Amino acid sequence: MAEQKSIEADALLVQRALASSEEFGRIIDKYQEPLRRYVRRIARPGPDELDMLLQDIFIKAYENLNDFDQDLPFSSWIYRIAHNEAIDYLRRKKRFGASLDDPAYDDDTLALAETIAADDDVVSEVDREYIKKCIIAVLDELEPKYRSVLVLKFLEDKDYNSISDILRKPPGTVATLIHRAKKEFRRLAEEKGMHLGEL
Question: Structure pTM?
């Protein structure tokens, strides 16, 4: 019910933005922070690069707003643009030899690591710090396709259909990617001495 209202509100925002370019600012206001978090989690750009990526995302969205199919959720459409920009950014960094070994960890990733590390009251502070570092290292080692589905599912709280729309993959493929990503996360974590059991 709430999701349907959000879809309807987005459709109204799009109609207004199509009628007046000044109304596009409302779309930016609504989506800037969620897209900032998403791109930061996937691509790990520096602050200036992140701002440029967001600017590119909103420019592409504005330029292609007429092509948006209003029968589909706008959030999936704009997340798709953000996803493509994040992946392109990673490819450019890789092609030009920039190091991806020292990512700029966002507060959400650190908070997730702290939450998992603090789960056991018996664990010493030294162990907690070690677990946090391991979780961050595991997230960083995941291939972008796996990191993106885990971020969308568990940090952005997207359902399978939304992830399917964003990644342009069938829901069954999304389920398989999530399963493989969790399996790979578990494998990498165990290599670092973390035993997560059933993830």
Answer: 0.72
Coil, strand, or helix at residue 102? coil
- In sequence order, the 6+-apart residues with CB closer than 8 A to the CB of 128 are 114, 117, 118
Instruction: Specify whether domain 105-199 bears CATH 1.10.10.10.
Output: yes
- Where in the chain are the domains? 1-98, 105-199
Nearest residue to 183 via CA among 140, 150, 137, 134 = 150
Q: What is the mean pLDDT of the chain?
A: 82
Closest CA to 28 of 17, 20, 43: 17
Is the domain spanning 1-98 CATH 1.10.3660.10? The answer is no
Same fold, 1-98 and 105-199: no
Summarised one tens digit per residue, pLDDT across range 180-197 is 998 998 888 888 777 665
Tokens read off for 77: 């459409």
76 touches 166 (CB < 8 A): yes
